[in-house]
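Posting this for the archive.
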Amino acid sequence: MKKVLFFLFLSAFGISAFSQVTTSAMSGFVSDGNNEPLPGATIVALHEPSGTQYGAVTNPEGRFNLQGMRPGGPYTVEISFIGYSKEVFSEIRLFLGQTFTLDVVLKDDMLELSEIVIVGKKSSAFKTDKTGASTNISNQQLKEMPTINRSIQDVARLSPYANGLGFAGGDGRSTNFTVDGANFNNNFGLGPNLPGGGNPISLDAIEEIQVVVSPFDVRQTNFIGGGINAITKSGTNKYAATVYSYFTNQNMRGNRIGDVDFGERDMESKQIYGASLGGPIIKNKLFFFVNGEYELQPEQVVTWRPSENGIANEDLMLSRASTSDMELVRQHLINEYGYDPGSYTNYPADISNSKLLARIDWNINHANKLSLRYNYTKNQSWNPTNGNSTDAGFRNRTMNRISQYSMAFSNSIYSMDNIVNSFSLDLNSRFSNNISNQLLVTYTKINDIRGSNSEPFPFIDIMNGVNTDGSQILEPYISAGYELFTWNNGVNNNIFSVVDNVNIFLNNHKITLGASFEYQMANNSYMRNGTGYYRYASIDDFLNQAAPRDFALTYGYAGEKNPAAEVAFNQLGMYAQDEWTVNPNFKLTAGMRVDYLRYVDNIIRNNAIYDLDFGGK
C-alpha cells in the first residue's frame, strides 16, 4: 500500500527550515537630499575579479533589488541619475545567503553632470538582511583558522551554536549539509560521519560557508535546527593556482600532560597533497576552476602474525597458527580450486581519500548566469576479518579469527569504500527590472559499500582439531576466503532535486514564489555468507577434502543476485512569501509552504507468501 504524507506549514513571520542557498543579493533605497525617492536611478554592480555585471533601475518607491549575485567580491557599485552626481561604492563584499543593504543619497548637481564621487563602502554583516541566526565563514577565514582534520566539522565550530555537525546538542545527522545546493548528507544514518569518509570536499575548493540556525525563509526545508551551506570557488579573469601539502606523524603531537609522560608514541603518519587551478576561458564571459586532493595514511589493520613453532606469544603478537600450516592451506586452495587467499605475513591496509572538483561559470549575457559543478570523492579504509560471528550453530566469543588462537589470510580483510558523485546546475536569470529567477538542479549519488581484494569464493573456517570422541574442538585456527559479511554489503543513496524560485518586486514588497521537487532513494543490502560458508573440524579434514561440519549460504529470492531493502519517495513543495519593507528600520515577512511526500511502492514481493490464502481464513 502506498503511503502519503501531507505537511502544511503556515507562519505569520516565516518558517524554520534548511536552505539550498547558493547566491547573494543586494538591495537599497535611492533618494535625493530631501529624502525623496528617485525612481529610475540606474544601479550597476561589477564583480571585479570576474567582470560579471548586475544591473537594476529603482522602482517608483526608489528601491532596487539585485538577486542571484556571486558571493564574495570585491564589488564596485555605480549609482547614477540624470541631474545628480554619480556615486561609486567600492570594496563591497557579499555574504552567502544574505542581502547587502545599500541606501544612497544622490547630490543635486545641475552644473556639472560629469563629476564622479567615489566612496568606499566597507562590507559588514550588520549591513545585511538575515533570516535568522547565521555565521558566514569566508575563504580568507578558512585559510587562516587552524584545523586538525581539514574538515567541515572543524570549521562549523565558529558558530556558537555548533558542536561539530550538531547544533544545540542535537545529533549531527539531523543537520543538512549542502555544496552548491546539492545534498551531501548522511541520509541513511548508519554512522555519524558525512559521506566520503567524513570529508566529502576539500577545504581548498570552498569559497564560503554559511552556518544557519532555525532560519525563517519558505525556500528552506528538510532539517531540524541547523544547516551548513557551502559554495565552491569559481574562476576569475586572472589565472590562479595553488599547490599544497600537509604532513603529520607521531612526533608532531604532545605526549605529556603536566609531569605525566605517556611513554613511547605509536607510529603514525598522514600526508595530504593537493592542487587547484582557476582562470578565464573567455575573459569576462567563461571561467573554470578545478581542484584535486589526495590523502594517504599508512596502516596495518592486522598486527598478529603466524608463529614458526606453532606456539602463541602475546608479547610478540605471534599466533599459535603456524607458518607451515598456513602455507599448506594456501597451496591447497591454489592447487585444488585456483584460489589465492593472499599473504599471511603482510596485511597492508592504507587509508586513502581522493577528491576531485571541476566547475564552469558562464556569463551568458547580462541577464543570465550559469554555473555547472561536478564533485567526486572516494575514501577507502580497511578492517580485519570479523572476529567470531558465524551461522554454524555455535559462536566462541572468547576467541577471534585473528588472535593468539587463529590467523586469517590477507584477502579475508575487507575495505569500507565511501564514494560520492555529485552534480549541480545553477541558472540565475533576470527577466525584467522587477522579476528574477533561480533554477537549481542537483544530483548526488552516495555509496557506502564493503570491498575486498578477494575473488568470489566461500569463506572457510578451519577449527583446531577434534576431541577423542570425534567431536570438533570449537576453537578457531585458520580462516580463508571472501570475508563472510562483505559480499553485497552496502548502502546506496541517490538524491535528485529541482528548485525554482521567482522573485517579484512590487514597490516595497519582495514576493517569492517557488516550487521544489526531490526524489530520494536509499537501499541497504546485506548478505552474510553470500559466497557460501564452510567450517571444517581440523586442518587434516580440510586438506583431505573431508565433509565440512557446517555449511551456510544466503541467496536472493526469485534469482535476485543483489537483493536489498529499499525505500524511495518523491517530495513536492510549493511556497509563497512576502517581504514587506514598511520603512528602513522595520521589515515584515510572512509566508506559507506546503510539502507533499509520497513513498514509492517498489518492495520485492514474495509471490509464494502472497498466493497463500490460509484455507480461506
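The two ends are 21 Å apart (CA to CA). The chain is about 5% helix and 50% strand.
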